[in-house]
């Protein structure tokens, strides 16, 4: 693979052999994308099309020092004498809140997470071996309470909860390295701490988007430099250097794939047990204590009996709204996170921060509006796969493998966002999606708004609003509802 002349038959045969091995590997692991080992991608970028990777290898050449293809299914020799502590893949580390002070609980949790890595990394890879080594290594000589891995997880969790910057976290790690006894294994920078924990995190995908919200540069639009609909450039081209090869994208969508995270939840015994609480642990006395007691849940079970009979199938709530991530009250920037909540959990866990998944992050500076469906496309594709076909998942609670399916059970949002998600026109004379034609608007001449005088009749007879003529500001109250 390291022949200078990449047009020779020998090199082309090597590329073909690599493509066969890589294809077999993704078929055996049910992964949709393949790492590209060319000189530019360097096993960082992934692609679904093996032909694209083949073209990269022929045009750009094979990355140096990648003799054992451990990212593509080959096993490393068992008798290696040395291990690198720095891991190869860049992903976000997983942080979790730990309210247990019992050391054995912490060790069991990390052990379960390590067992769950089997679905995501090959047991013979360097990544798995390094994480296993970190879980068994004492944080410093004589330390029995924390391993190198558990200690860094706790420290990084504090960093996340406290909102520390990487610079301040670097200072803390350097100071702890000096304070603790000689021989301690604390990384000296945030970069190496993240590298240590990367297998416990999950990948994210950056997808370029048209600044006018027309398309995402994926699939058939992946290689375009301008929007096929509005013609606006894909990149922020500034300056007078026409020979510059890479420009920053004009707009980016961050997608955090949901299927690997669902697999991770079921790979932890405690979480897998909580995910069937609605069927096994819920008190069933006819009262509404959980969404599973509601008519909507029962209607879904009756309409789709194959879906309803598997208690582990997930019911999800989708929520989104605009926010300003910079802590100011200015309306000049609006970033939209798309969140998923899992209603299989008990009521006291459903809305915990730990179990609310960030699926999409739509960067600003303006709201997507009715074009939000363009950004939802990657999430919808995964949801369609989970609904129509399902994915094989290992359940640590029962030690069995089953086909996981999922659906959107409901959405949580305000009225304007409801219009964006559903496409319903929620302004003007027919603003209510329930009443629709029954709404009788009356236009106020001087304030330029539609009001609905007849809605007062919906109040009970003794309601205080029937007799209250003025509000707290002393302004006469003549109407109950004003349209948006």
Explain this structure.
It holds the Pfam family Transpos_assoc. InterPro entries: Transpos_assoc, Transposase_21. It comes from Spinacia oleracea (Spinach). This is Transposase-associated domain-containing protein. This protein starts with 8 loop residues before the first helix and ends in a 33-residue tail after the last strand. It is globular and about 85 Å long. 32% of the residues lie in helices and 11% in strands. It has a six-stranded mixed β-sheet, covered by helices on one side. Strands 1-2 form a two-stranded antiparallel sheet. A two-stranded antiparallel sheet has the order 8-9. The relative contact order is 0.07. It has 15 helices and twelve strands. Helix 1 runs antiparallel to helix 2. Strand 8 and strand 9 form a beta hairpin. With 484 residues, it is of the alpha+beta class. It folds into four domains: 64 residues, no CATH class; 98 residues; 159 residues, no CATH class; 58 residues, no CATH class.
